[in-house]
Design brief:
Length: 162
């Protein structure tokens, strides 16, 4: 199972999420299998000023995690992402959250994502599409039960999957 986290904090946020999923679908190596509900959340990390819309997307992919990283960074760039400061507001952010059962820790990629257990805007939408799986020996359901911060479902469905 491969799961991507996608977020946007610059208007039109919802449109950027749709465009990102469309671009994933256009890629001949990627097949979008499922899309979570859309969550409205406060910025994380103390830099961004705007609220984010966040989703998780389950995909099939027939190449390496590093290759997927290159492909999603190209999508971010094509949609207008400019990387200046870490955790700033952005038109689109696409992260590899999990890539099958791989554990990767390199200079360019950490999988499972290093903040996956701290971000409710990741584990809530992951639960929508993955159910109660274990991440780093912690169940998504237990993370949700322990969560003390409010998280709002912004929209039940982003789009239909072809």
């Amino acid at each position: 199972m491969i799961v991507l986290g996608i977020g946007s904090s610059i208007e039109p946020k919802l449109e950027y999420l749709k465009l990102a999923v469309d671009e994933l679908n256009k890629n001949k190596h990627i097949k979008v299998i499922d899309i979570s509900k859309i969550y409205l959340t406060e910025a994380w990390g103390g830099v961004a000023k705007n609220q984010f819309l966040n989703i998780c997307v389950k995909i099939e992919y027939n190449n390496t995690p590093e290759s997927l990283l290159n492909e999603i960074q190209k999508i971010e760039l094509d949609l207008g992402r400019i990387r200046k400061n870490h955790w700033e507001d952005r038109v689109i952010d696409i992260d590899i959250l999990i890539f099958n059962d791989l554990n990767i820790n390199t200079d360019i990629l950490t999988v499972p994502h290093k903040y996956i257990l701290q971000r409710n805007f990741v584990y809530y939408p992951m639960y929508d599409i993955c159910g109660d799986i274990l991440i780093k020996n912690k169940s998504l359901k237990s993370l949700i039960e322990e969560n003390k911060e409010f998280i709002e479902v912004y929209l039940e469905k982003l789009m239909e999957i072809n």
